[in-house]
Amino acid sequence: MCVDMITFKAEGREKVGADRKIQLEVPKATERLRIGLPATVETAPSNSHHRSNLSTASASAPSSNNAPHVNATHIVSASENFITLFDAIRMNMLSKDTLHPILVEIIQAVNKVTDRDFENKGKIAQWLITLNQMRAAEELTPEMARELQFDLNAAYDGFKGTLG
Q: How much is the pLDDT for 22?
């Protein structure tokens, strides 16, 4: 990543170096740009934060069913997003502008449920990268669609395996 203009503060004065190019090594930022996800959705919130929220919610709630309900909502949302993707593939809705938002929703929903890696979770990110490299109106070939469905079925099974 190159920075065209850098402002330096030296000895109380500002110096602007417009003619200098500085090479920055920012691998995580570069990867997030390549995948198309902001840092806020790339990783799940920590479990300790979730646990404190859940224990607070269950302590203040009249019934102890609220804590599992919050978690169940995220699980249902993740499952719905996987199913939506599978349905889109079955209906031959294979353009980037259709599939990419669904994949983003899947990774966001999955990250709300667990911060653990699970079997084939990386396939979701790989398909996000593949779709990011396509033009909006471009469509997956039937072979690519079949691979996407196979990979995401495996990721969905891995996700369900984390649920216990």
A: 58
Note the CATH architecture for domain 32-162.
Up-down Bundle (1.20)
Domain limits, the chain: 32-162
Read off the pLDDT of residues 30-60 as tens digits, 9 standing for 90 and up: 666 666 665 555 444 444 444 334 333 333 3
Nearest Cα residue to 120 out of 160, 163, 88, 85: 160
Q: How many CB atoms lie within 10 A of CB 149?
A: 15
- The rounded distance, in Å, linking the Cα atoms of 74 and 105 is 12
Dist. CA 113–CA 158, nearest whole Å:
13
Classified as helix, coil or strand, 162 is helix
Q: Model confidence at 71, in pLDDT bands (50, 70, 90)?
A: confident
Structure tokens at 50: 């979730």
